[in-house]
Amino acid sequence: MTTYYDDRSVRVTSTALRVDDRSWPLAELTMVWHRRGSRSWRVLAGRGAIGAALAGPLVAALLGIALAVWLHRSLTVTIAIVGASVLVGLAVGPLADVLFEHLDRSYVRGSREWEMWATWQGRPVRLLSTGDALRFGQIYRAVQRAMERAPAAAPAQNSIGSSGSRPSPRSRP
User: Would residue 102 count as lying in a domain?
Assistant: First the structure.
């Protein structure tokens, strides 16, 4: 038995697909396809918040410099305000690295719900639903590899569908 994918809740082997406490023998899956859900506004709002957090200190620094120029105070006060504004702008450096990392992860995970479906015992069944696009892609590809390498029980069995809202089978080689 070959394991193609294994994590805390999903395991794809050469004989079966297990998701949480459910298991489906690959020989009984006659068609597999995926669906892409609508965008999650929560994820998009989170990305916007990260962008605002990145821009906030820079905007504050620029406003401080503009304020120092606008006030027409003594040279010492102007230098102090500009210096403080520049320090605020520089303080975003270490924070920016952490924020950019969170932003990158948000794009890797994606902003949609992904579902994997199959025809099992003559009816469609949802095998998996996740919002993590990277993980979904790894699992879907593992199922593809497992079904391609599984012995063909019948010519019409074990086909993999393309993306979309309904199955579009591809014949096995």
Answer: yes
Tokens 């027409």 map to which residue?
72
Residue 87's SS3 state is helix
pLDDT in tens, 2-56: 999 999 999 999 999 999 989 999 999 988 999 988 777 787 788 888 888 777 7
φ and ψ at residue 139, rounded to 5 degrees: -70, -45
Asked if residue 82 lies in contact with residue 65, where contact means CB atoms within 8 angstroms, the answer is: yes
Domain range enclosing 33: 12-39+113-136+143-170
The secondary element (H helix, E strand) that includes residue 141 is helix 133-149
Asked whether residue 1 is domain-assigned, the answer is no
For 122-135, what is each residue's pLDDT tens digit?
999 999 998 888 89
